[in-house]
Amino acid sequence: MGAGPHFHPNEQITWITKGSVKVLSQGKEFIVKSGEVLIIPPNVPHEFHALEDTIDIDFFTPVREDWLNNSASYIQNLQKK
């Protein structure tokens, strides 16, 4: 499962606590494994793909209003599956 290409006005800090993800951003591919942290600046297009069962903790600043009000289009697409 993953979050397809998207961007948001929030800085994102993602801490992978279990598993690993592939992150695509700015024409590059990053593999982020358990214990590692990734920082994505505001308005930078990116996408996440879980490579295995993964637990991550995401921090956003400012808060993700589109998550609170469930208006993020890619989340709505995931809920339909």
Backbone structural class: mainly beta
Number of discrete domains: 1
Shape: globular
Return the CATH class. Answer: Mainly Beta
Structure overview:
The protein is mainly beta and 81 residues long. The protein has one domain: Jelly Rolls (Sandwich). 15% of the residues lie in helices and 51% in strands. The strands form 2 sheets. Strands 1-6-3-4 form a 4-stranded antiparallel beta sheet. A 3-stranded antiparallel beta sheet has the order 5-2-7, with no helix packed on it. It is globular, with a radius of gyration of 12 Å.
Short description:
With 81 residues, the protein is mainly beta.
Can you give keywords for this protein?
three-stranded antiparallel beta sheet, about 80 residues, about 50% strand, mainly beta, 7 strands, single chain, four-stranded antiparallel beta sheet, 2 helices, Jelly Rolls
